[in-house]
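chain below, 387 aa
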Amino acid sequence: MFRIKCLNAISKVGTDSFLSNYGLTEDLQQADGILVRSADMKEMEIPKNVLTIARAGAGVNNIPLEKCAEQGIVVFNTPGANANSVKELVLCAMLVSARNVIPGVEWVRSIADSATVAKDCEKGKKQFVGSEIRGKKLGVIGLGAIGAEVANAAIDLGMDVYGYDPYLSVNGAWRLSREVRHATSLNELCAACDYITVHVPLTDKNPGMISKECIDDMKEGVVLLNFSRDKLVDENALAMALASGKVKAYFTDFANPLSVKMKNAIVTPHLGASTEEAEDNCAVMAVKEIMDYLDNGNIRHSVNYPDCEMGVCTSVDRIAILHKNIPNMLGQFTGILAKYQQNIANMMNKSRDKVAYTLIDLDSEVSEECLAELRAVDAVIRVRVVK
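prediction:
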């Protein structure tokens, strides 16, 4: 039986979807896999028995990805499982910003004790006149699962949508409405749009991608929406732009000591994926990823190893090998298997940066001696047998 440790409260809809050969454990030292949401794992000592970690959500900045790769721990996330939830909040933020809803609500509360509050509101409402979003230009930075949904929904609302994503996949392109216009650069998008929304993951390479230069290129009175990560935006430059009125409003889902004090910033407490539906979807997807990896050796939606799928294991034995991405690894593996008279029924090898993954289906049971030789190959990180 495989044992799974939950580091956060995980939707019961998800944990109930584990098959009978799985069980939950409170003891990390006994766990084969980990389910996590927001718990900080950066300084955690992860025991050698852990084979996989699944993040019930998209962001993985709370997990030490490189350390896990070196340890032979495959880390998954759940892209797209919370896409609708985040999309709806982005649309809500855009409408709230366009119609000055929050300043209006706060003003009404400030005059709540007035005996003529209804008349006062009629007289004072002109200071909160907003604008419709129909016909306005929306720039979507990042056209993955969430960005594509936002772009398509905005098209349906009558907006002119510009998309920028230099890493857009073929599958991602198929998800997009044909009416989304292609921006060839970040600066082009910033200069064209009335609203700009950010939907890219935070990596070591892109902190501050919404830079002072980008902000300078934006239209006067632009509204910036950030439901990805706060560090994607140069918030010092943004604070100045908000104070001057260059940026009309900043709607962010990430509270920090700077954002919560910015003029004209609307800060929510990380509500993007905080719906029952999104939490259920993310948990179910994470559970499926863990089971497919542990039961069949398949990797899908990993963030530190290459995706590699050979379907349900129907062979006598399937060997799963995590290793460094260097020449002649396959030659060494096949040579060892030939030495032990093992016939290869099917094989797949995929690489990603410094690491690689090899799945090998065998017609007969593999011996412990053969496995020991495979594990002894220099640059092999982990070998396990899937039956």
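DSSP finds 13 helices and 16 strands in the chain. The first strand starts at residue 2 and ends at 6.
thats it, cya
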